[in-house]
Amino acid sequence: MSNPRQASSASQTPHLSPAELSYLYTSLSLPKGPIRPDGRSPTQFRPLTAETDILPGTNGSARIGFADGTQAIVGVKAEVEKTVLASDILQQDVENDLQAPSDRRDGAESTPSAAAGGHGSWVQMSIEIPGFRDDDALPVFLSEMMRESLVGSVTDAGKGRDTEMAGGLKGRLVINKRWHWRLYIDVLLLSQPLSYPLPLLSLTTHLALLSTKLPKLKSQGEEDPFFDDDWGVAEHLYPRPSPSASATSSQIRPPVTLLVISVGDNVIFDPNREEISVADAVLAISITRNSEGQGLKLLSIRTIDPPSRLTQPGVPNSENLSTMAATGNSDNAAAANPSAGQEEVPGVWRPRRGGIKRSVITELTRTVLKKGGVGEEVLEGLEGVEV
Amino acid sequence: MPLETSTTYPLTKLRLDGRRWNEMRVFQAQISTNPASSGSSYLAMGNTSIMCSVHGPAEGRRGEASGSAGSGGAVVDVDVNVAGFAGIDRKRRAGGSDRQSTNISTILRSAFQSHLHTYLYPHSTISIHVSVLSSDGSLLAAAINACTLALVDAGIPMPGLLCGCTAGMTGSASTPKDPREDELDPLMDLSLPEEQELPYLTIGTTTMVPVGQNNMDEDEEDGETKVAVLNMDSKVHYTYLDSLVPVAIDGCREIRELMEGVIRGSQRM
Questions:
Q1: If interface means Cβ-Cβ distance under 8 Å, which residues of chain B face chain A?
Q2: A184 and B61 in contact by Cβ < 8 A?
Q3: Where are the alpha helices (DSSP H) in B90-221?
Q4: Quick check: B168 and B199 in contact, CB under 8 A?
Q5: Phi and psi at residue A288, in whole multiples of 5°?
Q6: How far is Cα A51 from Cα A158, in angstroms, rounded to an integer?
Q7: Quick check: A128 and A186 in contact, CB under 8 A?
Q8: What pLDDT does residue A324 have?
């Protein structure tokens, strides 16, 4: 916990000198494909181990550990809660309608949408990172980033099959007009974040939600909810495909948020801390499977403040006061303030400035979403985990 | 009438979860669970499960190094975090810590500060991070055991394993003990429902490695047992301490054997 806390939303910058940063940037931005410090290919993820259903006291839980030792545990707990009357949430209804013009459940068209389509605030997420208070910028930003894609993912396949998941996660939490489930997702990072922890936390949350079970409802319609005692018949929050239909339809799964950086013209996935510190742009991209089970759907993109903005610039020899006497080049006015120098000198580190080019964002999302691309690879890997 | 150990035990001589008075819950432990720390452990006693990681001995923060204990030896820093999903109901904590976790971390800090050979590491900090994943009673005892295992994994020298166990009485035990008709039995290793209902105490014991004259004593196989931690939050009449303390010490001995097995087992790999 000796790392100083950073107000920035990006994770801590490692203490690299401008020369090291420049070296790293050059090798990562090589036009023929980046050379990463750990020898991975640009789209390769760090190896990880995953297990689910590890905590008996939760509705669903998962643990993922990266090979470098960072581990996260996610526990999901659900509570039954009374739905607030429609008149009190009229304001939220409007917002809810705007952000989720989803299919209503059958026969619910006349009721307020919060009772039918669910409400985003029913999903609560909190992240615990050692060394950070839970109201620090990093945990709050991370949890909101993951929550919005969870809540926002609404399948459009309400017709015919999978009526349970018609309203997405929000719709699934509706019990009847007066009652709903409230979902608490608690994320526990067990070690210091060695890199920006977003991919780790997102993958763990994904698995935990998949393993989440809710007790089977025994009451019907608008009765006060009454549940089956038998945990063995509990239903999965994300329903499993019925064995008969498995050939045509794949299971609906929670979204995954991937961390992507661009360095020069290269796109790099799952960056470690050193790589992220020289990134031109850092994006968090949330994806999920399309409702038909093939192809991917983009849910959200968030830009993250790259820590490279906070690094110290290198000083080129031509502007360096101490070498100037040797070179005899003494009438350089820019020497007094090295950051004012505008031109790029090869091999000299210069913090990245300005925004992201539109073409870069296009390239980043294309790499994630294309058929056989990284997004598909990650989702397939996750589908391989026995839940 | 709620089902409670205090009402069912006199009738059946069995506790709520079916154990007898001197039976412990299932004990499971692993060490070296987290490669990113100096030492780590996972420990489960029944449904209580705890992960513990140790960082250090390492150079402490500048503010601490100049503190009072800085030059004398390593400073033990304990951070206890009870996860929101650990209990039956999800707990909402404002600002990061509650009374229970602060209490446990204070006890752990003072216990291990005096237990470890801290004089070997002057000007350094040993930071212990305890995460409670699921809490079902005997939290302090389980935390002591998890910390010991993690510290052993980190290779920090200590005179012996510090093991914790709880003991309670099968009734309120608020009046003096009647030696003729004593219907109350002591219980070992309490679960959460029992903790909430019955008086209990937590004991941590350690064994001293026999040195000097005692070195030759072969009668006592595991050296001398010393009580290093004793904590009691509930009320009990002092006449019952006679029966509580030996039961807790017995539990500690059992746990010590289990923990030694865990440590030996992990070295074989």
A1: 34-37, 47, 49, 51, 53, 55, 58-61, 79, 81, 83-90, 93, 95-96, 127, 129, 131, 133-134, 136
A2: no
A3: 99-115, 139-154, 192-197
A4: yes
A5: -150, 170
A6: 31
A7: yes
A8: 65
Phi, psi at B231, each rounded to 5° = -135, 135
- Written as one string, the DSSP assignment of A307-323 is GGGGSPPP--GGG-HHH
pLDDT band, residue A2 (cuts 50/70/90)? very low
| Structural domains for chain A | 23-311+351-383 (3.30.230.70)
Q: Give me the amino acid identity at A273.
A: R
Q: Which residues of B touch A211 (CB under 8 A)?
A: none
| Residue among A2, A57, A68 minimizing CB distance to B86 | A57
The CATH number of the structural domain formed by B18-267 is 3.30.230.70
pLDDT in tens, A7-30: 343 445 567 888 888 898 889 988
pLDDT digits 0-9 by tens, A201-254: 999 999 999 899 888 888 887 888 888 888 888 888 888 776 655 444 567 788
pLDDT band for A272, please (50, 70, 90 cuts).
confident
**Using a CB-CB distance cutoff of 8 angstroms, which residues of chain A are in contact with residue B133?**
54-55, 73, 75, 188
Closest CA to A11 of A227, A273, A229: A273
What does the buried/exposed string (b/e) look like for A225-257 if buried means 16 or more CB atoms within 10 Å of the residue's CB? beeeeeeeeebbbbeebeeeeeeebbbbbbbbb
| Residue B238 · residue B194 · CB < 8 Å | no
CB–CB of A284/A302 below 8 Å?
A: yes
Closest CB from B55, B85, B133 relative to A77: B85
ipTM exceeds 0.95, yes or no: no
Q: Do B81 and A188 touch (CB under 8 A)?
A: yes
Q: Is A6 on the interface with B (CB under 8 A)?
A: no
Nearest chain A Cα distance for residue B238, angstroms: 36
pLDDT values of chain B reduced to their tens digit, one per residue, 269 residues? 567 777 888 888 888 888 888 899 999 999 988 888 899 999 999 999 999 999 888 887 655 545 554 567 889 999 898 888 888 887 766 555 678 889 999 999 999 999 999 899 988 899 999 999 998 889 999 999 999 999 999 999 998 999 999 999 888 888 888 777 777 889 999 999 889 889 999 999 998 766 655 555 555 555 688 899 999 988 888 888 888 999 999 999 999 999 999 999 886 55
Contact between A194 and B86 using a beta-carbon 8 Å cutoff = no
CB contact under 8 A, A56 and B134: yes
Q: 3-state SS string over A253-311? A: CCCEEEEEEEECCEEEECCCHHHHCCCCEEEEEEEEECCCCCCEEEEEEEEECCHHHHC
User: Element (H or E) spanning B228, and its range?
Assistant: strand B224-231
CB B104 within 8 A of CB B80: yes
Q: Is A68 touching B (CB cutoff 8 A)? A: yes
**CA–CA separation, A259 and A269 (whole Å):** 6
**Contacts for A192 with CB less than 8 Å, ≥ 6 apart:** A1, A3, A70, A130, A131, B36
CA distances from residue A79 to A76, A122, A205, A214, A264 in whole angstroms, order as listed:
10, 10, 18, 10, 48
